[in-house]
Write a structure and sequence with these properties.
β7 and β8 form a beta hairpin. The strands form 3 sheets. The chain has a 4-stranded mixed sheet. The chain is elongated. It folds into 3 domains: about 260 residues, no CATH class; about 35 residues, no CATH class; about 130 residues, 3-layer Sandwich (Rieske Iron-sulfur Protein), CATH 2.102.10. It has about 450 residues and is of the alpha+beta class. The chain contains 13 helices and 10 strands. About 55% of the residues lie in helices and about 10% in strands. The chain starts with a helix and ends in a 9-residue tail after the last helix. This is DUF2318 domain-containing protein. Pfam families: FtrD-like. It comes from Geomobilimonas luticola. InterPro entries: FtrD-like (IPR018758).
Length: about 450
């Protein structure tokens, strides 16, 4: 079962090795050794982190490494496009280093470390599942040898530039991580763009006192409302997600052809130019395919193949003292580690909330809503709860803590046989939360 889950990650690893070998064909032994060594280091490092710290820290470290790689890719893509125009930049020494044995080995080692850590995070119980770890390492080794054999059969004309290698490696790493909810980058990126736009528009309107201006008609408010929809985050995230790969492709397309002014024979000049154009087209293959891989990663992030645990809210009522009591045991076991939703109605008002036993063994009671987003509720999967509105993942360890997109905590009293909640406090908390997020509407309408 664990091997089946690792198929996307291991296939991505095989293609990463293949691209690195093709990008540095003269340094196959160094690249192969660095890839395998890095992969083993990444797996071992992830296991140590999972054994030594709570799960949030290992996932955070790997996710930060992925994010740093994406930011580095962004910077290099801008530099590559700038250099394609013929201008010189101060990175020529770094560019030369990439083509050396040390540069190729260092790049392959870093790619292997991150890929190995991502694969380890995919395993169930990565801190102690020895058979799964051995299967992972063995599979990675076999696929590395397979990639080495395939690379030798590719035509020599199919070359890959250093920027193309980086594009493919980053795209494959992000694709392999997008199937792991706690490592996915596209959904958090879209969420941050959405919240950034929301906060900017809100602060701007308040600073210039737009609500007091009579010339702002309802039609104008309709357009402003579009900026408060989650589609802003999605399309903004798409721009940030795809731009670096497109810039690399443009940089290769804009590369200057060799000077042929010194060649007298026209046929020879045309032959030289045609060969340069053909080589440039071959170098475009990997960046163009990488754009498709980025698209696949974004799609996998947007529509993950995960079934969220999202039970139908169970109606509850309060006693004469206005107290809601939920037993720990019975038809529902509050201590089974799953979120359990409830619906409380009183005086024409209602409130949704859920009870959850966190990994630390503590029961917590929270609203099925946060203080930021539209109250679409939460689901649970792979050690997290997810906000359905902005697709933000909240580690189970932090549920019950205030702030951000975390579910709003509710005061409660834990007893030996259950939890008790004040009905009036619950209704008031729900009403104030929903009122505060009333400006966040579907589609900005």
């Amino acid at each position: 079962m664990a091997a089946v889950k690792l198929i996307p990650q291991l296939l991505s690893w095989a293609v990463i090795v293949l691209v690195l070998l093709r990008g540095f064909p003269a340094r196959r032994p160094i690249v192969t050794a660095a890839c395998l060594s890095g992969f083993l280091v990444g797996v071992a490092g992830a296991v140590v982190l999972f054994r030594s710290f709570p799960e949030t820290i290992p996932f955070g470290v790997v996710k930060s490494a992925l994010g740093t790689g994406f930011l580095l890719f962004w910077g290099i893509s801008v530099v590559a496009l700038y250099r394609s125009t013929g201008r010189r930049v101060a990175t020529s020494g770094g560019a030369r280093f990439v083509t050396t044995s040390s540069g190729a080995g260092a790049g392959a080692l870093l790619a292997g470390i991150i890929a190995g850590a991502v694969c380890a995070c995919r395993l169930p119980g990565p801190d102690g599942n020895l058979p799964a770890l051995l299967t992972l390492v063995l599979g990675a080794g076999i696929l590395t040898l397979f990639a080495l054999a395939v690379e030798k059969m590719l035509p020599a004309s199919l070359t890959v530039s250093p920027s193309g290698v980086l594009t493919a490696v980053v795209a494959l790493l992000l694709f392999s991580s997008s199937s792991i909810l706690r490592l996915d980058l596209f959904s958090p990126l879209s969420m941050k763009v959405m919240k950034g736009v929301h906060d900017f528009v809100h602060q701007f309107m308040e600073s210039v006192l737009i609500p007091d201006h009579l010339f702002v008609r309802s039609e104008v408010w309709g357009y402003i409302g579009l900026l408060f929809g989650k589609e802003v985050g999605f399309w903004g995230g798409m721009v940030i997600w795809f731009t670096p790969a497109i810039l690399i492709a443009l940089a290769i397309s804009f590369e200057r052809l060799p000077s042929v002014a010194h060649i007298r024979q026209g046929a020879q000049r045309r032959k030289l130019v045609a060969a340069a154009i053909k080589a440039r087209r071959y170098r475009l293959v990997i960046p163009v395919l990488s754009v498709a891989i980025f698209a696949a990663g974004a799609y996998q992030s947007r529509f993950p193949s995960v079934e969220y645990w999202d039970p139908k809210p169970v109606p509850v009522s309060a006693n004469q003292e206005g107290e809601i009591f939920i037993p720990k045991k019975g038809e529902i076991d509050l201590e089974d580690g799953k979120l359990h939703k409830y619906l409380f109605k009183q005086g024409g008002q209602e409130a949704r909330f859920f009870v959850l036993m966190t990994p630390g063994g503590q029961l917590t009671v929270v609203l099925d809503a946060c203080s930021i987003c539209k109250p679409d509720g939460y689901g649970q999967a792979e050690g997290t709860v997810i906000c359905y509105y902005c697709v933000t993942l909240i580690p189970l360890e932090t549920v019950g803590k205030p702030g951000g997109c975390n579910p709003v905590p509710i005061p409660f009293a834990e007893r030996a046989d259950g939890v008790a909640i004040d009905g009036k406090t619950l209704i008031n908390s729900w009403s104030s939360t929903v009122s505060a997020t009333a400006r966040v509407k579907e589609g900005g309408k």
